Amino acid sequence: MKQISPLYARIFAVVRKIPRGRVACYGQIARLAGLGNHARLVGYALHALPPRSGVPWHRVLNARGRVSLPGSAAQTQLQLLEREGVRPSANGAIDLPRYQWRPSSPRASAQPNRGLP
DNA sequence: GCGGTGACGGTCG
DNA sequence: CCGACCGCCACCG
């Protein structure tokens, strides 16, 4: 049994809040977790995350809308995303402005997320 | 206690 | 659009 740091716990908590069919980038998670712009820590935390944690780690992408996992794990993540209705564009990247999760707009009343077919 | 590493982000070419 | 460089911080040996 490993004791996770409160920092990790906060990161995991934020990732858990990502709705289905929606994605978030590492920097966004870091900011929501109160880590500032230290997105690397989020990646590190997710790396230490066991597969059965119940955390939707597959909804976390980098700022380019690309999967950062090396090897076959990337395929797995893409498959999980596609299963939720999130599909990459022709160039292989996910349309962030289209799928990115918005916990709550600073300027509520405006959700530029329209465009879903 | 120190040094290297990494599921990143932003900038430059 | 893509690739390379640097910075930033926690974890591991």
List the helices and strands and how they pair.
Layout: H1 6-16, E1 24-25, H2 26-32, H3 39-47, E2 60-61, H4 72-83, H5 96-99
Parallel strand pairs: 1-2
The structure holds a DNA duplex (13 and 13 nucleotides).
Description of the molecule:
This protein has helices at 6-16, 26-32, 39-47, 72-83, 96-99; strands at residues 24-25, 60-61. By secondary structure, the chain is mostly helical. The model has no long low-confidence stretch (mean pLDDT 87). The structure holds a DNA duplex (13 and 13 nucleotides).
Quick tags:
37% helix; 117 residues; mainly alpha; DNA-binding; two-stranded parallel sheet
Show unreliable segments: none
Q: Tell me about the biggest sheet?
A: 2 strands, parallel
Strand % is under 5%
**Total beta strand runs:** 2
> What count of helical segments does DSSP give?
5
Class of secondary structure makeup: mainly alpha
Strand arrangement in the largest pleated sheet: 1-2
Q: Provide the helix percentage.
A: 25-40%
CA radius of gyration is 14 Å
Q: What is the averaged pLDDT score?
A: 87
Q: State the end-to-end CA separation.
A: 45 Å
